[in-house]
Request: fold
Amino acid sequence: MRRPLLLLALALVTGLVVASGIGPFGGPPSVRTTGDAGGATVLNPFSNGSLDNTVTYVHVGERSDDPVAVAVLNDGATRSVPTTIRHTPSNETAYDRAIRLPPSASAVVLFHAPAEYRVTIRTETGPSALVIARTAFDCNDRTLGLVVEADGETTERGISTSMDCGG
Reply:
């Protein structure tokens, strides 16, 4: 008699967890596009450019104090850069759009919700991807960068602070 009740309770709890999006069964966090960083610190990973001409900010998840940023800098003529963000735990696409970047312009993605993500951009030479590990979310400011060169080749950059995040 106890076993059927235990199995029923387990099934009920599992159903509630799946329905609420808690745990590994949850989908990707919400995504919104804005014209600013919303007060978040975005470090400049580019030695040959700046983030002064950022045309769009994509926010993944609700605002947090220590987001991880990915910046894409166009070092060539105006181009559309197809950009896909995959939320690895759910294997779902959180964002899939082409971002129009004028010369020397950038787009910044701010990951507020700690998880593993895969960011893929496509240029005329093919796809380039960055993986943001769950462990990248700590007390440090961190920006990963992709430079899209004039010929469509990409170069990866990165910068972060190195504070001791211990308790």
User: Anything to note?
Assistant: The mean pLDDT is 87. DSSP finds one helix and ten strands in the chain. The first helix runs from residue 2 to 20. Helices lie at 2-20.
